[in-house]
Each structure stands twice: as C-alpha cells, then as structure tokens.
Amino acid sequence: MTHDQFEVLSNQAIAICGAAYFVALLLHLAEWAAGRRVPVDAPVAATVGAGAESRPTEAAEAAEVEDHDAAEKMERFGRWGLVATIVAAGVHLVAVVSRGLAADPVRVPWGNMYEFTMTGTLVVVAGYLLMYRRFSLQWLSPVVTGFVLITLMVDVLLLYTPVVPLRDALQSPWLVIHVIAAITATGAFTLGGMASVLYLIKERWLERGGSEASNGYLARLPGLNELDRMAYRTHAFAFPVWTFAALIAGPIWAQAAWGRYWGWDPKEVWAFITWVVYAAYLHARATAGWKGRAAAIIALIGLATLWFNFVGINFFFGSGSQHSYA
C-alpha cells in the first residue's frame, strides 16, 4: 500500500471505530436500563400460612421469573457491549498504526494534537480493558465508551490535519520515549478522574437521600470507599510515569532539540503545574489522610490542568510556544 492509501485507511478506520464505540455505548446504556428492573439484593419470596411450610405465592414466583429475565438481559447487553468495545479498540489500533505508516518517511503516529488525541483515547480504552476483569469495571463501561466517542468526534471535527513529515525538533528518539510516557500517564489520569467524578456524583446522590438498595446505575456503582481506592491506585500508577515524561524525558529532549533543558515555555510550565497538583494529591493522602471528596476535587483539578496543557496551550498560547505543533 502507498502512503496515501494508508492515510485513507486511517481515516476510514477512525470513522468505523467511532461507529463501533457508539454501538458499544448504546449497548451499555441498555445494560444499565435493564438493570433498573433487577434488585440489587436477592429478593425475599413472599410466604403464606403461618406455621405451615413456606411456599412462594404466584405473584412472588412471577416477580422472580421477571427479575431473572431482566438479569439475563442485563448480562447479555453487557457482554455484547464489551465485545463491541473490543472490536472498536481493534479498529482504533488499525487507525493509529496506519496513520504512522501514512507518513513519508514512516514515523510514530503522535506528531500533532490530532494524532496525540487519537492515540491517547486508545490508551484509555486499553487501560480499561486490561483492568476490566480484575477490578470488575462493568460500572465504568458507559463512561469510558461515551468519553472516547465524544473525544474522537471533537478530534476529527476540530483537530484533524493531513499527514505531514515530522518537524526538525521532533526528529529524535526522545519523541518516542517522552510521548509514550506522557500518553500512558494521560490515559491513567483520565481513568482516575472518571472514578473521582463518579465518587462525587454518588456521594451527592446519597446525601440527597439516594439509597444503595435501589436498582439504578448510581446504586450499582461500587461503594464510596471502593471508588476512592480505585481513583488513588490509578493516580499512584500515573504519577511516576508523568514525572518521567515531564521532568526527565522532556527536558532531555528539549536539550537535544533546542539546546536548553528548561525554557519556561507555556507547555513546560503547565506540565510542571500538573505535576505539582498531582504531587499535592498523593502527598495529602499519604500525610494528612485526605480521602473522599477533598481528594477527588484535587484529582479533578489536576485533570483539568492536564487537559488544558494539552489543548488550551495551543489555542491560547500557540504563537508563543515552541510546542505549538503538539
């Protein structure tokens, strides 16, 4: 295949995977809609005849059959949604790889904002799928698929650029090292931010009288302690990776490209701000025992600085940043 054909393949694959993520989102929404008819706790059958052998009434038997059917439907939608997500991720991978093969000469597929976003969303999905079984992440499925679908739509509509060769500053093996670390950390921070958002939503719902004995999506989310622990573990993994990307690999690459390790470039400054916020998050948890709402808010502030560093710098400081191409 020619380079132009690989570019067409990448564009077609990103459209197909977007459609697959949309199907996965619909299936997961159907899964949780069906779950509203399935009691969180096992139903207690009604009995008749005091002192006699307890037998369920006809109404109780009918309700039990209905609950069983709804539970099977919920499981079936969830299984189909997971399969659709895996298929979408596979096509997504094709889009990323073919994007790199479309360049002449062949290069890594993260030379601009469009390619970074395309690759970063793939990392989010990959992290979710890798942790799906171990941490029972069914509850995160509609959030992940919805986030990736919306982000890819924005990426294609607003950030798309044709394939071009890398700029001179990007002609370095540190591009691979620095950006792989940054993308991995960004994906992990994003998953942790999702858990933090759900923590705040569920906490607010419980304060307003919500009951975990009900059958809705919020009731089926893990408990607040589990959500808080999930967010902490994800951030604890991402932080050292971001530290390497922003404070070690980045300055080394800057020295090779521009002859200085640090130049107070807007993107460098905001990368450091992001590092400080997440360092404060982990330090507060370890020393002051901050958990729950306070920790979730700090984590989301960190996520806001992370994504502003990625997107906002280019729109507000693009002309004054040496990273304007990325």
From TrEMBL:
Q: What is its main location?
A: membrane
The transmembrane residues are 12-30, 80-101, 113-131, 143-163, 175-201, 236-256, 268-284, 296-317
On whether Glycoprotein is a keyword of this UniProt record, the answer is no
Report the record's Gene Ontology biological process terms.
cytochrome complex assembly
Keyword list, A-Z: Cytochrome c-type biogenesis, Membrane, Transmembrane, Transmembrane helix
Q: Does the keyword Lyase apply?
A: no
Name of the protein in question: C-type cytochrome biogenesis protein CcsB
